[in-house]
From TrEMBL:
This is Transcription termination factor MTERF8, chloroplastic-like. The gene is LOC113715017. InterPro entries: MTERF, MTERF_sf. GO terms for biological process: DNA-templated transcription termination. The lineage of its organism: Eukaryota, Viridiplantae, Streptophyta, Embryophyta, Tracheophyta. It comes from Coffea arabica (Arabian coffee). One of its GO terms (molecular function) is nucleic acid binding.
Length: 382
């Protein structure tokens, strides 16, 4: 800082800037009360704050609250939980009052309840970073009732843990009225409790943040515009996909399919058969369509009737098995006609036992390279 002040003082054209800078710094320094110096020193020593950053953070805390607070104990406790210095510095910069929370009386009992629920240390780090406001809530008046509410809604502790990991704010989000309205709406469309629990766990934001009007719009579009009745087993999966994608993303997928000559009738026929095909990224959709239509010669009607081709990895499964199938056909090792679709749908173990093991002596290189690929992907050695 002294070097910076010296530079400013030696530059006559920047004298006013020096005066303003020095006045502001001096004012901030003067505003620091004696009991804040311990706090400032701790921020500098333990979390790598600069002097100015530490003074700024201390200014956000009432001096009386610093009395007899052991900040080092707080920092040590959170280091043991798994937070690194960068994460703690970010928290301390935005919310320095959090560092004054009583470890023994306030933090440990609440952390213990979350651990008993099933949250791991890494999960707790996510909660501390994403929803530290919950530690300011009463343990018996808010946190325990909140967990019990989520347990009843999601059906198990495992479901609650999964939802919290994906959306930590779940623990401190006032939205019971909205949640209940969305749950009632889903039940109106015939959803069972376990379907609702699974839907919420996969992406809690959809039910905890979105207004009922938004949820109803998704449900109505799938039934009325996309032609999947609510009684269909595919209705749940269609809602799951469409609620995640959004209208703009869906439109991009439609544009790609249309650019390859697909009619809307074929597009929605594929979607009704297997909604998860719309989960493909734009790049993956384009590469898959290019391979199936331009290299293999499939038309949109065939692909719409065999959507499973789009639901597996193009490079790791489709292309590899297509090469195996070509070699088997060229050497006349397959007696009956076999489609790429039929072998793509097989699990790895069944594919190897049915199409590779019987011919490993005739095509040792193909067999060996495929098994090596499986081992690289950490499949069980066959």
């Amino acid at each position: 800082m002294l070097a910076r002040i010296s530079k400013l003082r030696n530059n006559g054209g920047e004298r006013n800037l020096f005066c303003k800078y020095f006045l502001n710094y001096s004012t901030n320094l003067a505003a620091v009360q004696p009991q804040n110096h311990l706090f400032i020193g701790c921020l500098e020593r333990s979390l790598g704050f600069s002097r100015e950053e530490a003074i700024s953070a201390a200014g956000k805390v009432q001096c009386s609250k610093l009395y007899k607070k052991d900040i080092d104990l707080f920092i040590s406790y959170f280091e043991n939980l798994g937070l690194d210095k960068t994460q703690m510095k970010t928290i301390a910069s935005s919310d320095p009052k959090f560092l004054l929370t009583n470890v023994e009386k306030t933090l440990k009992p609440k952390i213990r309840v979350l651990e008993e629920l099933g949250l791991s240390r890494s999960d707790l780090v996510k909660v501390i970073i994403g929803c530290r406001s919950v530690f300011g809530r009463g343990l018996d008046s808010f946190i325990r009732p909140r967990i019990e509410y989520l347990r009843q809604l999601l059906g198990s502790d495992k479901g609650v843990v999964l939802a919290i990991k994906r959306f930590p704010r779940l623990l401190d989000f006032y939205a019971e009225t909205r949640i209940q309205a969305n749950v009632v709406l889903l039940k109106k469309f015939g959803w069972r409790d376990e379907q609702i629990a699974k839907f919420i766990s996969r992406n809690p934001r959809r039910v905890f943040i979105q207004k009922p009007d938004w949820v109803e719009d998704v449900l109505q579009r799938i039934e009325n515009d996309y032609g999947i009745p609510r009684e269909s087993p595919m209705f749940y999966y269609a809602v799951d996909v469409i609620s995640l994608l959004g209208k703009e993303n869906i439109e991009r997928k439609l544009e790609i399919l249309r650019s390859f000559g697909w009619s809307d009738a074929d597009i929605w026929r594929m979607f009704r058969s297997l909604p998860v095909t719309f989960n493909m990224s734009v790049d993956r959709a384009r590469k898959s369509l290019d391979f199936f239509m331009n290299e293999l010669g499939y038309d949109s009607g065939y692909l719409a009737s065999h959507p499973k081709l789009f639901s597996v990895s193009l490079d790791r499964r489709v292309k590899r098995r297509n090469e195996v199938l070509k070699i088997l056909n060229e050497r006349k090792l397959i007696k009956r006609k076999t489609s790429l679709h039929s072998i793509v749908c097989l699990p790895e173990l069944k594919f190897v036992k049915r199409y590779l093991l019987p011919h490993k002596d005739e095509i040792p290189d193909v067999y060996g390279s495929y098994i090596e690929m499986l081992e690289d992907r950490k499949f069980e050695k066959l």
